[in-house]
Amino acid sequence: MGIERLDEADAPVVSRERASDTDGDQALAPETRDRATYHAEYRATVDAEYAATRDSWDAAVLELRSTWEAHEARWPSQKDSASPHRPDTLDLEASAEVDRGCGRIREVGENVITPAMRAIEAEDSDRHLIGIEHRLKGAERIKEKVAAEIEARPGLSADQALASVPDGIRFTFCYSDEHYVGGVTTDLERLGALGFKMAKQLKNSWDSDQYKGINTQWLEPETGQRFEVQFHTRASFEAKQLSHAAYERIRNPRTSAAELDELEDFQRQVCAKIPIPPGSPQITYAPRKDRDG
Q1: 51-106 pLDDT, tens digit each
Q2: By CB distance 3.0 to 4.6 Å, which of 39, 64, 196, 285 could disulfide with 218?
Q3: pTM recorded for the entire structure
């Protein structure tokens, strides 16, 4: 922002001669007043810049929604094209196996992982879990993923395919821009401190032109249950919601090449409008044991 923090050494100095001519309160008044003025101006500048960024994003959302509506008018969605891997492609035995697995996921999610995530949330009031009511992926959507995995890897059992689904349980932390880097870094440490193991290297997409945010995958050590934690700002989360339909079409192999170009261009437009918290593209994570050798 171009404003440096005022440290004690930078404060205006009251000369000894001037101090000796006045009482203690009067001698301190200029320094106290100057520091108070500085901090008030600094806070006002920060608030104004944040408000401008927020207002800019809010205005962009209206434009982007219109752009998406125009795309849908040109490319009407087909009712049966949301996913090429329908849950009814699983045979009865596989479907029943996935249903049992979903029950296990729900039990671990509700009794173990959700209380732990709530405990982490309670550690800091500067951010919160958002969309927690959607923390458990629906059985039908999980079956679609299992069907896709079996198609991609013939010979895989339904239970094995289910074990590879990373987001049957998922959470999203939402931060203000100014607290994003410090908040994410601290919450990653908190997840590790609770014994959760990172199942896959942290994916930092703040430099991407298709998606902004950080995605992580974790293992609950006692059960081996996988779960996902995403880290967003308000704008990046809203952008994800705004572009979700485009994302679903992009990943659908039935989408034409011509539409695919437009979809990727739309996602670039969305990402170009998202304010990027300073330092966010550099966020990484290594378990403490790896850092300590």
Answers
A1: 555 678 989 999 999 999 999 999 998 654 445 556 667 999 999 999 999 999 99
A2: 196
A3: 0.78
Residue whose structure tokens are 């500085």: 38
Q: Which residue range forms the structural domain that includes residue 31?
A: 8-55
Instruction: Verify that 15 and 137 share a domain, yes or no.
Output: no
Residues 6+ positions from 267 with CB-CB distance below 8 Å = 209, 210, 211, 243, 246, 247, 250
Distance CA 145, CA 156 (A): 13
Query: For residue 38, with 0-12 CB atoms within 10 Å meaning exposed, 13-18 middle and 19 or more buried, which class applies?
Result: middle
Kindly state the helix (H) or strand (E) to which residue 231 belongs, with its residue range. strand 225-233
Q: What are phi and psi of 96, to 5 degrees?
A: -65, -35
Q: Distance (Å, rounded) from C-alpha 116 to C-alpha 219? A: 13
Q: State whether 46 and 155 are in the same domain.
A: no
Do 172 and 237 form a contact (C-beta atoms < 8 A)? yes
The answer to the question of residue 84 being in a domain is yes
